[in-house]
Every structure is written in C-alpha cells, then in structure tokens.
Amino acid sequence: MKLNKSGQFTALIFLSVTGFSAQAAEVWSESFETDGQGTRYTSTPEFTDGGGDYWLRTDGVGLPISAGAYSGYVGTYFWAAEDVDGEGGTAEPELNVTGIDISGVSGLSFSGLFAAGHKGGPGASKYDSTDFMKVQYQIDGGGYLDGVCFNYEPGTDTSPITNEPIGLDADCDGESDGVAGRLNATLTEYGFAIAGTGTTLDIKVIVSVNAGDEELAFDYLVLSGDMGDVPPTVSSTVPNDGAVGVAENTSITINFSEAIDATASAVTMTCSTSAGVSFSSGLPATAVSQLVLTPASTLVDGETCDVTVVDTEITDVDGTPDAMVANYDFSFL
C-alpha cells in the first residue's frame, strides 16, 4: 500500500501545547521502509512464530489480524506486535532511537501513527488492563517521561479487567479516555508537544500484549521543531533510495524538512528503459512539505530509475526564501 501522509485521516492530539511552533519542520523521522535495526534504531529482538506471536518490522503480509489487515501506514513497512511474550519473547519489548540532534531546535513535538488490530466494543474486544502501548522520551539523558499512551478502555468489569477496547490515554494514568480515541486497524496520527530543548533527544516505544488477538501496530514516527530560517532538505522518499521490486505504476513521494515551493522543473526522473520520465501531476506546488508525483507513463518492469530533486527549484516559505544547498538524488529498481 502507498499512502501519502496528507491524504489520510489525522487525529493529532497535543497533550501540552507549551512551546509548540506553527512553523515546525521535520527534525527526524522513522518510517521503517528499510531495515534500520542497529543503525537508525535498536529494539528488543524481533521474532515471529508465523502465527499469532510476533514483534517485528513487517509489510503486513501473513499477519493474522482480527480486523483483516492494517491500513493507513506510510509506504510498505510498519511495526507490529501480538502476544509478545509467546515463543520466548519479552513481556514488554521496546524500540529505541537515541541521540537525535536537537541542537538549536525549539518548539519540539512528536507524532506517530498507531493502531489496534482488534476493534470490538466494550466487553467484545481483546485488550486487558495489563495491555498498553506508549511513547517515552528524554532530553540529554535526563530520564524518560511519558509522551503519549494507549491503554484499555474501562468498562463494567471488576478485577481482572479483560476483553475491552484500547485507546488514547492522554494523561497516561493507565485507562483510556473513551470512544473518541479508541484505536482500530487504521493507523491514525497522535502526538504531543515536548517542553524544553537541549542537545540530544531519545525516544522509545514500549508495548505490552500477552495473548492472542491482542494486536498493536505503529509507524511513521516524527520529531518536529522550529529550526529557524535554514535551507530545506529532503527528509525521506517513497520509494526509498535503493528500493527494489517497486511497482510499475508507483507514485513518487518526497518529504521535506519544512514547507516549500517547487517549480515545474523541481524533480527529474530518468529510467534505464523509459529514458526521461515526466510527471502528470504534483508539480508545480506551493507551500507543501510533501510532493506526491505521478509519472506520466507506466514504468517498465525491471528498469532502474534515477530521481533528482533540483536544488535551485526548491525554496522554503518561512522568512527569507532559501533554496536547497545541493541536489538530492535517489534511485530504485
């Protein structure tokens, strides 16, 4: 599935608006499109039994999701979990990102896409009082704080509380806030503002689900902030650089660090068989942080395509217009 972020339903909830900047630019992101284990992130060891016990980066193929399948994730891959202590797994596995450079950045905020594979109502779902998913963060090693949490939705059960929905727990008190933030199989955006700044920031995602049909997923983790008037950069692309097996009818998605203007000549694409490929839609564009470009013709199976984002044809829209400092090139097959 190829979904662009601007085309999906957004339910971004800031738990605190202190210091949030309307001019926020993307400082860091992780979309799991390539395997970043040990380089961009580290996690509790991934595993799967091929059925209902797993903790792993996945394209969703073969996952026994109660709702049928996840949707709303960005690109092809995301992270998923079910019965994480099965098959010798860890009861509360973590995914950690450390050392994100936030020097000179103010108005920090985090967002991510989150989902639950089982979507029954009160008394008819699968999540218990011990199940949760949460994002924590720390600045300059000062100790982790809760950012956004998802917990069971209290019903009429008395202890033990079982078989309830799971949803947004804005104050991270161990109980969800009700129907409005209830998770389902469509990955939906939630986030929080981060007070203060420093030199480095660490993020971790922790999950606890210990039985079959207790299914959770997350994707496209983003840290944003106000970096002042600096030149725009390309933060990520879909397909990513070096991707193989890309569909012949693929669109080209380019994410930028901030809102930009792009001329009609801002992106070029040359393929080994198709030669020069033009775009039927997506350019020019004004005040966007993402370009979604549709090739004017279907690509040829097996050909290599080289894409260039032209530095002089991209300028930011905050303060004094700044162009990119260099071309950005990526290729796919």
Helix count, per DSSP?
0
Low-pLDDT stretches: 1-22
- Taking Cα atoms only, what radius of gyration do you get, to the nearest Å? 21 Å
Number of discrete domains: 2
The count of strands amounts to 22
What does the overall shape look like?
globular
Ends: how far apart?
17 Å
Known CATH architecture of the largest domain? Sandwich
Element-level helix/strand string: EEEEEEEEEEEEEEEEEEEEEE
Structural class: mainly beta
- The whole-number mean of residue pLDDT values reads 90
Strand share of the residues? 35-45%
Helix fraction?
A: under 10%
CATH class of the largest domain: Mainly Beta
Q: Which fold name corresponds to the CATH topology of the largest domain?
A: Jelly Rolls
SSE blueprint:
Blueprint: E1 25-30, E2 42-43, E3 47-48, E4 54-58, E5 78-82, E6 94-101, E7 106-116, E8 132-139, E9 145-152, E10 166-169, E11 188-193, E12 200-208, E13 215-226, E14 234-238, E15 252-262, E16 267-271, E17 275-277, E18 279-281, E19 285-295, E20 305-309, E21 314-316, E22 328-332
